[in-house]
Amino acid sequence: MVNVFIEKENKKANVNARTAMEAMQKLSINPETVLIVKNNELVLAEESLNEGDEIKFLSVISGG
Fold first, then answer.
1. Please, are residues 41 and 54 in contact by the beta-carbon 8 Å criterion?
2. Which of 53, 55, 57, 64 is least surrounded by CB atoms within 10 angstroms?
3. How many domains, in total, are found in the chain?
4. Residue 50 domain-assigned?
5. How many CB atoms lie within 10 A of CB 11?
6. Containing domain of residue 18, as a range?
7. What CATH number does residue 32 fall under?
């Protein structure tokens, strides 16, 4: 299990996932709309997750 924080929804969750991508799929998060932070380091969606990791899905904001 990994601890997940979803910034857009200001929500915390626990997910059983092997990669950040798998966690996003289980939480119905579009990978194109977030940056992934694992234990305070920016990572890619393919990043492996370990028991007790803390993941944050931070919203990507664009403007004009």
1. no
2. 64
3. 1
4. yes
5. 11
6. 2-59
7. 3.10.20.30
Q: Which amino acid is at 52?
A: G
Query: From CA 32, how far away is CA 13, in angstroms rounded?
Result: 20
- What token pair was written down for 44? 């890619």
> Which amino acid is it at 24?
M
Give the type of residue at 4: V
Cβ proximity of 7 and 21 under 8 Å: no
Q: What's the whole-model pTM score?
A: 0.90
Residue 64, in any domain of the structure: no
pLDDT at res. 61: 81
